[in-house]
Amino acid sequence: MQEQHAWSGRFSEPVSELVKKYTASVNFDLRLAEFDIEGSLAHATMLHKAGVLSDADLAAIRRGMADILSEIRAGEFDWRVDLEDVHMNIERRLTDKIGDAGKRLHTGRSRNDQVATDIRLWLRAQIDAIVPLIGELKTSLLDLADEHADTVMPGFTHLQVAQPVTFGHHMLAYVEMLSRDAERMGDCRRRVNRLPLGAAALAGTTFPIDRHYTAELLGFDDVCHNSLDAVSDRDFAIEFTAAASLVMVHLSRLSEELILWMSPRVGFIDIADRFCTGSSIMPQKKNPDVPELVRGKSGRVVGHLMALITLMKAQPLAYNKDNQEDKEPLFDTVDTLIDTLRIYADMMRGITVKPEAMRAAVLQGFATATDLADYLVKKGLPFRDSHEVVALAVRHAEGQGVDLADLSLSVLQGFSALIAEDVYVVLTPEGSLAQRDHVGGTAPAQVRAAIARHRQLLG
Ligand code: ARG
């Protein structure tokens, strides 16, 4: 016999099997089940306080939902595609258990405000899990930065050796990015944390509801103030996915660097074996699979952002079934982000830095040329002129196959009479670093101060 839908009274023929499958969401939205129950219990409690549900009805709903929750947790709940989604599955089960009280639960409510509430409750919990994971990764990076606050490496622009920096300073750049990422998650949470329930299908309800009470029961900071907006906009999910995309993009950049640094041609670092794989044909290979996959998965999350923002575009008010498509991209964004953060925090603890290789690279690239230019400026030469003097000196050194620091004083003085013996201090990588001693600079003392500041903020 054809199963009756909650809405089938209006229809003269049943939907086809294909349409049923096509329109159903239970296969994925069952993930919202616990939040759906939480929302329903708050709604029922509010209806009871408003005099819409009796004591007996509320007690039955609470009892029935407690049973259903344990069935779900035990994996014993029979999810039925013919009941379309998580909401109707749970409601039907409740009614089977407690009869008419179960049918009264949906008073003054629609699946439209129900699902919007469920997603917000779910996403809030995910954000609350993600922020500490970002913190853990920051701690791994800070530990590495601490260990290498003095380790010289070439800083690059255009991937050409530019100026010496410390490896610690380089790691701190990612700590800054991740700090903003965590901040963005917190900002987004504020807008996620508002209650749609009470909007009902789109226009509100004729029952004497108390939305602020429901909001309080569910830990929402406020209610959504327009019923049409409450059931239809998914901007909070788009915003979250944008914030998640930025985390992934930041980690993709770091991945790209780790991959490059681990290449034998560069050899700046090694990644612990547990994050790498071998080749089935080339016995010598050790491949940085984890960072490569993170770089790849960043595309997947940015794709979800595109999916969600396109989903919203051109939807008229209020709710449209299009919105059912919000869940899979959002769920996958959260899963990908959480796994990536976890694995990354561990991977960064398994990085071995090779300071000799980094130092050798600094010495090959005339990384202290700017230091020589600054030195001449401090002796009175205008910067543009000193830039020219140093360019000529670099050209000469390059021709000789040596570093600036290898040129004798008399050769250097041939380029500018302002150059004296004290020049050699600024021509070493350590001298170069030490002079960048201001907030945000790469001097080891500044790197240590920045680490301390971040550790204190992390608490
Ligand atoms: N499964 C639906 C969704 O995810 C629930 C809301 C459906 N509402 C409706 N009137 N068809 O959006």
From TrEMBL:
Where in the cell? Cytoplasm
SUPFAM superfamilies according to UniProt:
L-aspartase-like
InterPro entries under this entry?
A: Arg_succ_lyase_C (IPR029419), Argininosuccinate_lyase (IPR009049), Fumarase/histidase_N (IPR024083), Fumarate_lyase_CS (IPR020557), Fumarate_lyase_fam (IPR000362), Fumarate_lyase_N (IPR022761), L-Aspartase-like (IPR008948)
Reaction catalysed by this enzyme: 2-(N(omega)-L-arginino)succinate = fumarate + L-arginine
Q: Give the similarity note.
A: Belongs to the lyase 1 family. Argininosuccinate lyase subfamily.
A Pfam family of the record is ASL_C2
> What biological processes does GO assign it?
L-arginine biosynthetic process via ornithine
UniProt domain Fumarate lyase N-terminal: residue ranges: 9-303
Gene Ontology cellular-component terms listed? cytosol
Q: Which NCBIfam families match?
A: argH
| EC code | 4.3.2.1
Q: Give the UniProt keywords, A-Z.
A: Amino-acid biosynthesis, Arginine biosynthesis, Cytoplasm, Lyase
Supply the enzyme class, top level: lyase
Pathway(s) this gene product operates in, as recorded in its UniProt entry = Amino-acid biosynthesis; L-arginine biosynthesis; L-arginine from L-ornithine and carbamoyl phosphate: step 3/3
Task: Give the principal location in a single coarse category.
Answer: cytoplasm
This protein is called Argininosuccinate lyase
According to the UniProt entry, where is the signal peptide? none
Domain Argininosuccinate lyase C-terminal: where?
366-433
Molecular function as annotated in GO: argininosuccinate lyase activity
